[in-house]
Amino acid sequence: MAYGTDSIERLVEQAEQRYRYGDFQGGVEALKLALAIEPDNGFLHSYLSFGLINLKRLFAAQHEAIIGLELEPNSAYAHYTLANLFQLKRDFDKALQHINDALILSPDNVSFLVLLSAIQLDVGQLQEAKVTLERALALAPSEPEVLGLFGDYWYELNELSKAEIYYNEALSIEPQHFSSLVGKGRTLLRNGNVIEAKEHAIWALQQQPNNSTALALLTSVKARQSPLMGIWWRINTWLVSGNNARTIVLLISAYIFFRVTSVALVDFGYGAIGTGVSLFWLVIVVYMWVGPTWFNKKLKAELETVNLDRNF
Asked: How far apart are alpha carbons 43 and 279 in whole angstroms?
C-alpha cells in the first residue's frame, strides 16, 4: 500500500516492527508522526487504534478506530480493528458484527479468521469456532496463532492432551508465542505440573510483564501451591471443567445431598450430627464464596508488578 511519501512508509514499517516485538508505545509514537504528515489516512488511524487497544487506552482507541472507518468505510482492516476493540470491551455482538464485515471484504484473511474464532470461543460458540479454525488452518497450516487457538478450543472442551499437542506445535514454530505459552502453562497446571506451569507463566511475563492472562496463570500457580487456597483452586477447577449446565447440576446435586442427609439424620435421632452436616455445608459455601475474592486480591497484587526477575 502506498502512502504518498517515503517517510510515511518508513514510519509504518517502524510501527509494524515495534508492534511485532510488543513495543506498542513505540509503534503508537511512530504512527502519530505519520499522521502528522497525512492526517486523513484512514489506515493510519486504524493502525494507531490497534496499538492503543494493546495499551488498554480504549477511549482513545475507539476514537481512532471510528475515524479510520469513517475515512475508509470499505476497509476490512478498519472493521477488524473495531472488532478487536469491542472484544476487549466484552461487547461481543458488535465485535462479531465488525469481524464478519471484515471477512465479507476479505474472506481469506487468516488474521480475521483468528479473531472470529477467538470471539466465538469467548461467547461459547465452540462448534462454530472449530469450523472457523479449520478454515484458517487450511489457509495457514503453520500459523502459530491458529494452532494456539486450536489449543484453546480443546482446552475449553477439557481435552487437555489434545490442547497440549496444538500448543506444542505452535511453540515449535515460534518458541516465544505468547498465548501458547500461557495456554500450555494452564494445561500443565491442570495436569499437576506446577513447576513447569510456573516456568511458562514467567516466560510469558518476560514478554508482557503486566498481561492479565499471564498474571492470572502465575496467580493460579501460587493458589495451587497454597495449602488452604489450593483446595479451593482444585474444587473450582473441577467444577468449571465442563459446560455451565454441568456446573449447575453438580451444585444443585451437592445441595440436595447435604440437605437430605441433614434432615434424615435429624429424623433418625442424630440431631447433633445433622446440625454438623448443615454447618459443614455452610462452611463449604462460605469458603467457595470467599475463594474468588481471595484469588482476585492475589491477582491484583501481581498486576502491580512491573518487572519480573528471571528467577522469580
From this structure: 62
**pLDDT tens digit sequence for 68-118:** 999 999 999 999 999 999 999 999 999 999 999 999 999 999 999 999 999
Write the secondary structure of the chain as one string of H (helix), E (strand) and C (coil).
CCCCCHHHHHHHHHHHHHHHCCCHHHHHHHHHHHHHHCCCCHHHHHHHHHHHHHCCCHHHHHHHHHHHHHHCCCCHHHHHHHHHHHHHCCCHHHHHHHHHHHHHHCCCCHHHHHHHHHHHHHCCCHHHHHHHHHHHHHHCCCCHHHHHHHHHHHHHCCCHHHHHHHHHHHHHHCCCCHHHHHHHHHHHHHCCCHHHHHHHHHHHHHHCCCCHHHHHHHHHHHHHHCCCHHHHHHHHHHHCCCCHHHHHHHHHHHHHHHHHHHHHHHHCCCHHHHHHHHHHHHHHHHHHHHHHHHHHHHHHHHHCCCCCCCCC
Sign of CA dihedral 159, 146, 144, 309: negative
The contacts found for 191-196 with CB under 8 angstroms, 24 or more apart, are: 191/160, 194/221, 194/224, 194/225
C-alpha cell at 199: 516456568
Contact 155, 186 (CB under 8 A): yes
pLDDT reading at 140 higher than 60? yes
pTM tops 0.90, yes or no: no
For residues 45-62, one letter each, b for 16 or more C-beta atoms within 10 angstroms of the residue's C-beta and e for the rest, the string is bbbbbbbbbbeebbeebb
Judging by beta carbons within 10 Å of its beta carbon (0-12, 13-18, 19+), is residue 262 exposed, middle or buried?
A: buried
Rounded-to-integer distance, Cα 52 and Cα 65, Å: 10
Count of CA atoms in the C-beta half-sphere (13 A) of 185: 28
The position carrying cell 494452532 is 147
